[in-house]
Amino acid sequence: MYNKDLIESLQLSVKIKEVKLENIWMGVQTFVMYIVIDNYSLNRRAIVCQKGSYVTQRREQVEADEWLSGYMKNEDVILPNSYKKGAIAFDHSKLKKVSNNDSFYLSIELPKEGIKINVVFTHNDGKWEMTGFEKEDIDIQLPAKQIEKLLLKKVERLEPFEERLGVSIEKVSIKVHSDLNNSYSFTLYGELHLRENSQLERTIKLNLIIYDKEGNIAHRADTYFKPSTFFIFQVFDLYVSSDYISPNSIGSIRLYPNWLN
Hints:
With 261 residues, this protein is mainly beta. The chain has three helices and 18 strands. A hairpin with a 4-residue loop joins β9 (103-110) and β10.
């Protein structure tokens, strides 16, 4: 029933084929759980699977040791209308036996679709059946160049402010920076030009305001242009840390100048 719901909502199926006691490491006995993940969609899909947790009928939680090589990797790609088999190992010293009413919990992420599913299986009469699943939204993991394009589309210039101050903001671009933890920050670049004169008469403050999807202010940054160092135009950059970069959470990015009092 739950697997059918999963197929209908995400065109994805997850099944436990069997759990077997095998000798895979120099005669050391290990329980191996064989899983099949089936992609019914017409698109290739990136899949990220956690190791999973086994809960015995006596309520003991046993963590999986690893995904075995030679099968689907825990981070993998499944082609359109195809499936892959995975194998998860449990040390026999930790998991003694497989019994009725044992459970297995597994989280699977579809990072390029912004979806995470949590599934639970229960063992009865020699079969494993999916007895529950839930879906949640996660941040979409996109290449930096694609995030830059998404963020750039969210930038809003307030041109009446520019006209009032006799300036124009030009050549706006965004550079995204990523780290080893897949966290992102970005720098917004641009040029501030005078429309007529070559010298500033007063100091200008350039404001960058980030709004969330509900229209609330989530973050702000600013920079200044002083008459003593300005001539015709000046390049600027505004940095935003990874705490505010999530493409899913940013509603808009406003960029506007005002006189510094």
